[in-house]
Write a structure and sequence with these properties.
The chain is mainly α. 46% of the residues lie in helices and 0% in strands. The chain has helices at 14-23, 34-40, 45-57. The structure holds zinc ion.
């Protein structure tokens, strides 16, 4: 199944979907790409991808496969 960013239409990676679920809303069915999400969170895509690594390696979060 393919998902696109609900704002800019970019194809989403599974990590971007997982991050959105983790940070915004677990039950979300529409998502933002890492760039749009970074804008909303006053963060940067670089910091968010570090966060993805953190969730995956340190927390072994089940959303990140
Ligand atoms: Zn986007």
């Amino acid at each position: 199944m393919e998902h696109k960013c609900m704002r800019c239409g970019k194809n989403l990676k599974s990590d971007e979907i997982a991050l959105y679920r983790k940070l915004i809303w677990r039950e979300a069915t529409e998502y933002l790409c890492i760039e749009c999400l970074a804008g909303d969170l006053s963060s940067t895509p670089e910091r968010l991808s570090q966060l993805i690594d953190y969730f995956r390696t340190k927390q072994k979060c089940c959303l990140f496969v």
